[in-house]
Amino acid sequence: MLDWRHGWILSMGSLKTLFVCLVVFTVFSLAFIMTALRNNSMARIFKHNDKGIYKLLHLKHSTIGNKENTNISAPVTSSLNVSSIHSNDSLWCRKKILKGLDYVVIYNAVPKTGSRTISSVARVLFNHHKRKGRSLFIPYTLYRDEPRLRLYYKKNSAGSTLMRGHSLYTPMLDRKYVYINMIRDPVERYISHLYYSWYGDSNNMNKKNETKKNNIDNCVKEGRCIPTGYLPFFCGFHPNCSNATDRWALEKSVTNLDNYLFVGLTEKMDDTIMVLQQLMPDLFKGLFREYKRKAASLKKSYSTIVKQPPSNKTIAKLKENMVLTYEFYDIVKERFSELKECLMQRNTRDQRVYPG
């Protein structure tokens, strides 16, 4: 009997020792896991391949100067690194698709990139096809007034709305606000904008009497035309954003790209409208079809009347003043191409015809 009790006591002691060891092991394991999580705090999106191996695909929020990021634009030779979105990642583009109608689309348009074309087609959809939605123009007086601009957005946020205007980026925390934009080759855009300011277009005839002596070559040669690019539209209201040669403005603009649903390209207008319809299929259903129906008349209305081709010397001079803008342009081109490819592959897998 004594031997049995003695053995029982020894067994209880062993169990207590084992329990203590398990507790210590658990504590150290949790500490190790928490440390690892702190050291790797940025969320990552993983893709599962056919062999069951998870592959690191894309950092959810791109960061400037992060060594893990992939430089997606060859011309960018500085320390600016932008993570690349692999075009075959269906998860990434699927997460960008916004279904439903209750969105306020803010189109803080860069001048002379085709924003009037998109807003005109959207207006036809909303008005003529009895779609619940409206198209508004952001007053130019709010261009550099951030508090009033925010107030305007909030006052006009009821229902489905597309707001277009030449306003600077300002963050809106409510997820119902969706930013879109479009850009084009910086030199081509600047020249188009300059001639439009001198001579207008078919939809704006009051500038046609501008002296014909105005041309881009003379203007640049005389130092009257100094381009600043379009980084401020993406950078925002910070004082440094207005400095076309400040690399901080470029880095901030690239960071803010993550807050846009997408940024399209004027040179690829068809693809841009396809992508917009794909990303917001309920709000912009039929947008591409309506655009193709009106494309010829819209181009005639909104094309600049007078535009003399610049000399090679002028082009070189303009590019010297817009080095950072070209870096931004190349980054957007790469991202847009990858987004388009991602959507096309998704539609193929879902047996749908692009653009849907």
Low-confidence stretches: 36-88
How far from one another are the termini? Answer: 84 Å
Query: Which structural class do you get from the secondary structure elements?
Result: alpha/beta
Summed over residues and divided by their number, the pLDDT gives a mean of 77
Strand order of the largest sheet: 4-5-3-6-7
* Assembly state: single chain
Largest sheet: 5 strands, parallel
Which series of helices and strands comes N to C? HEEHEHEHEEHHHHEHHHH
Percent in helix: 40-55%
As a whole number of angstroms, the C-alpha radius of gyration is 27 Å
| Rough outline | globular
DSSP helical segment count: 12
> Care to count the β-strands?
7
**Could you tell me the strand content as a percent range?**
5-15%
Explain the layout of strands and helices:
Layout: H1 2-39, E1 44-48, E2 54-59, H2 90-96, E3 104-108, H3 115-128, E4 134-137, H4 146-155, E5 161-165, E6 177-183, H5 186-199, H6 216-221, H7 232-235, H8 247-256, E7 260-265, H9 269-279, H10 287-302, H11 312-320, H12 323-349
Parallel strand pairs: 3-5, 3-6, 4-5, 6-7
Antiparallel strand pairs: 1-2
Helix pairs in contact: 2-12, 3-10, 8-12, 9-10
